[in-house]
Amino acid sequence: MAQTDVAGRAPAVRTLDGVVDGLADGVSPSRARQLRMVAAMWGRALEHWPDGVTPPARSGELFGDEALRTFWRLATTGRLWMRERDVGKAPSGATLRIVRDCLGILAAEVCPGEAVWLPTVAQPEPKAVVPPAQLPVLYRKLADMASDAPVERGGIALSKEDRVRLLALVAVVLDTGARSSELAAMRLDDLGAGEGTVWVRRSPQNASDLPQRVVAGQAGVGEDVVHRVMTGRGGVAPGSRAKVLAALERLGEGGPAVERYALRPGTAVALRQWLRVRAGLVARLQGTQSALWVSLKANQWQGEPGFALRPQGIRKAYTRGAVALNGLMAGRYGWSPLPTTLEQLRRTVDVEPDRPAPHGGGTA
């Protein structure tokens, strides 16, 4: 067992706690919680360190091959959970992937530039998607429904607002392959004239893990400015946006590449229907709401509808609407059921941008 200090934690783990504290402000809240979980798992691992294996004494030694392999053996058997009722329960594949990713993030901070061993975690089998041959039929049905569709059948109801937003959302995904985070970043000024094009910010998959304090220091701007640029939000002066994008380039992250996609006529129709509904939703809000996709109802955090949807909100709205729409359309000729997750729908799409732009390219 490793030596502990007066707080009962090994010095290596106390150092790791400090590393996590330094990263916390630059990552998403969920990632910060995951990093703290992995640091706590390291503390638990050192308490159960096997005899005959030298325990790591310094933070850098936590990421040596032997130490990581020992940690991983303990983690996969469920011995590192903090709650006693969970001890011995084997972690799911999704949890193991989170632990592995957090180990990589911490190793990059503690041992910068060094190659470390990280375990391989099997990826789950992807869920079934809409067959490519069915996509044109599905798209035509959705475009037709933008102006005329049932809203209730057999006890299943889908409000007009829900239907209009869902159809516009699905049509945009079919034309762009946008992820939920990229949909959440869309603003009104990303739409071209006549809703014939849209700019999509292709943010890196690990954008939420990039320390925003590092980017802010490189760019000479506040962390709030970095956050707005990386999430595609408005309210950033062009000069500040350019500084952030240049810093992202220097740091090797590539920045949020922006691509323009041509939208089919049916998508333009669906978007125009949604923009009319959206205008009514945001009319009562104070200030300017620039997000393209907004909430339909008030919730516990926002007392009014019309606020920008975050990625999780977009995914939930899509799933709820897809389930209801599939029920409404069940058995109708030519209807191919929508996948019930947005990612399933997105993976059916194979499209090319109308025009790729340099990082941070302008709107249409």
UniProtKB/TrEMBL annotation:
Which keywords accompany this UniProt record?
DNA recombination
Question: Would I find Lipid biosynthesis among this entry's keywords?
Answer: no
Q: By what name is this protein known?
A: Tyr recombinase domain-containing protein
Instruction: Give the superkingdom in one word.
Output: Bacteria
Family matches, as InterPro entries: DNA_brk_join_enz, Integrase-like_cat_sf, Lambda_DNA-bd_dom_sf
Lineage here is: Bacteria, Bacillati, Actinomycetota, Actinomycetes, Kitasatosporales
What is the species of this protein? Actinacidiphila acidipaludis
